[in-house]
């Protein structure tokens, strides 16, 4: 299989992008030049418990479904230092200290690049989505099982910000206003939006970004809650919706490969 194809003088690189979330593992083959999917998006429920062995096996299953054998980029819900997961919030704490990059590369027998999942989504949104061409400070927040963050300053990612873990109402913010908190507390969109708005104002006062992009599962429901947001900064939904994590993971792998 060839991963680089030249068309009209442009090199197109094909990479399998995988987004590991608290509830689902999603993957698709991505054209990193265009930021487009070249295959169907496949989804496997995240195993419970989400131990390293179980998740690695789920990824093997995903690559088989997509008949893939080649470079892989993977977004993972933890800060990642040189391939190693350093914290576990919505995944099994057996991940702490595991070299995720090495584990997946060895299990798959393919080169795997691993980055934080929100960072991956941020990379995709500034390259192809709502942050494209934006100057200054862009902050992407993913709203899903947890809350992830990506901070991009003048087009350059500052990796591993963990702004879902700011303390709000006596606990980490994601326990209060993630999408799973909305479901857990059976909140209407309005009541959940009030919580999220409080969080957004808090983040705004710490960073004063030029733009907020909201990604993750809740980005598809942006019209249900944007009227309740009072923050004094532009807020847009992720244009790539919940594909941003898959596309961004592939972009991260492509930058690693091309140096
Ligand atoms: C994790 C982050 C992750 C976010 C979204 C948080 O619980 O700590 O690393 O980006 O969830 O998955």
What's the gist of this structure?
This protein is of the alpha/beta class.
Summarize this structure as a short list of keywords or feature phrases.
259 residues, alpha/beta, Nucleotidyltransferase, domain 5, 2 domains, seven-stranded mixed sheet, five-stranded mixed sheet, 16 strands, 28% strand, globular, binds beta-D-glucopyranose
Tell me what you see in this structure.
This protein has 259 residues and is an alpha/beta fold. It folds into 2 domains: 4-117 and 243-258, 2-Layer Sandwich (Nucleotidyltransferase, domain 5); 130-239, Nucleotidyltransferase, domain 5, CATH 3.30.420. It is 32% helix and 28% strand. Strands 1, 2, 3, 4, 5, 6 and 9 form a 7-stranded mixed beta sheet that branches. A 5-stranded mixed beta sheet has the order 12-11-10-15-16. Strand 7 and strand 8 form a beta hairpin. The protein is globular and about 45 Å long. 46% of the residues are buried. The model has no long low-confidence stretch (mean pLDDT 94). The chain binds beta-D-glucopyranose. Beta-D-glucopyranose (BGC) binds at residues 77-79, 89-90, 116-118, 142, 144, 146, 148, 162, 164, 174.
């Amino acid at each position: 299989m060839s991963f680089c194809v030249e068309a009209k003088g442009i090199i197109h690189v094909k990479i399998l992008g995988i987004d590991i979330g608290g509830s689902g593992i999603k993957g698709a083959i991505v054209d990193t030049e265009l930021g487009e999917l070249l295959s169907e998006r496949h989804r496997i429920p995240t195993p419970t418990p989400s131990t390293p062995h179980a998740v690695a096996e789920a990824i093997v299953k995903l690559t088989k479904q997509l008949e893939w054998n080649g470079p892989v980029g993977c977004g993972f819900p933890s800060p990642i230092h040189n391939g190693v997961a350093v914290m576990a919030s919505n995944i099994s704490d057996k991940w702490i200290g595991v070299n995720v990059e090495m584990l997946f590369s060895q299990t798959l027998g393919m080169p795997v690049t691993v980055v934080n999942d929100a960072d991956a989504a941020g990379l995709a949104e500034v390259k192809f989505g709502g942050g494209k061409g934006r100057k200054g400070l862009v902050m992407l927040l993913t709203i899903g099982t947890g809350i992830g963050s990506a901070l991009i300053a003048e087009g350059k990612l500052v990796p591993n910000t963990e702004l879902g873990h700011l303390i709000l109402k006596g606990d980490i913010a994601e326990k209060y206003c993630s999408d799973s908190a909305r479901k857990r507390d059976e909140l209407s969109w309005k009541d959940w939006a009030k919580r999220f708005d409080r969080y957004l104002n808090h983040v705004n006062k710490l960073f004063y970004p030029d733009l907020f992009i909201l990604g993750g599962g809740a980005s598809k429901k942006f019209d249900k809650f944007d009227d309740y947001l009072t923050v004094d900064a532009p807020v847009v939904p992720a244009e790539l919706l919940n594909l941003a994590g898959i596309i961004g993971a592939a972009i991260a792998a492509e930058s690693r490969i091309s140096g």
